Amino acid sequence: MFLGRQVPPLIPPTELTTDTRDLPLTAIRQLTLSEQIRDMLRDRIIAGDLAPGEKLTEIDLAKRLDVSRGPLREAIMQLTQEGLLVKAPYKGLRVRSVSQIELRELYSIRTALERFAFEEAWPHRTEAALKDLKARFAALEAARERRDLTASVEGEVAFHTWVYDLSGHGLLQDHWRKLIPLVQIYMSLHQNLHGVSGVFMSANAEYLKLAAGDDLAPMLDHIGQHMQQGMDEVYASVPAAAEQE
After folding, report:
1. Are 172 and 116 within 8 A, CB to CB?
2. Which partner for 74 in 34, 152, 210, 233 could form a disulfide, CB atoms 3.0-4.6 Å apart?
3. 173-183 burial, b for 16+ CB within 10 Å, e for fewer?
4. How confident is the chain (245 residues) per 10-residue block, as mean pLDDT?
5. Is 195 left (phi over 0), alpha (psi -120 to 50) or beta?
6. Model pTM above 0.90
7. Domains and CATH numbers, the chain
């Protein structure tokens, strides 16, 4: 049986502590074979084993993963809907391509959305909500210490998802969900370039501190600096333009 991972869903703040040993056990879901294959493929993409723009075929993937083509086809359909895979007439199947233009657009929209999310969420911060954020930070830190790239990327997404959860803004949450596959790819590129351990942890620690502070303005400034740093460090490693899908 394959053990796959999923991007943590948008959830309301919970009563958690910063010690990962105290994190509550979640219900174990029984995954279908296609869901297990989907999670395995997602892990391979995040880990960089399947590179952005890489062309894929069902026959080759079935051999590499040692699975039948029926559930594989269902998994591919799900990842295509998520945006991690692209299937186009006459061009076949490929991992989503990336480009410098798309990178700039991603970080500009992330900056705007996350600032707006904090403006919406700021009055709703509670002790329980801040414990939730600390727990997400602790889980991310634990993944980094294990040097688990996939869990680190998922942990980063969960950490930044907190403010969207807390905002209670449905349309804003929908926009963030749509960005997550692309965010995963760029986070994967960053971590493959710079390694898992310690990447952005000092910036995330400052993010955590400011999120619990009394002044919104420094938080908004930090988001801009945080996003700019991320873009600068990945920018030179991606092509100027993505292949036309």
Report:
1. yes
2. 34
3. bebbeeebbbb
4. 42 41 52 90 85 90 90 94 88 87 90 97 98 96 88 92 97 94 83 63 91 97 88 74 54
5. left
6. no
7. 27-95 (1.10.10.10), 100-235 (1.20.120.530)
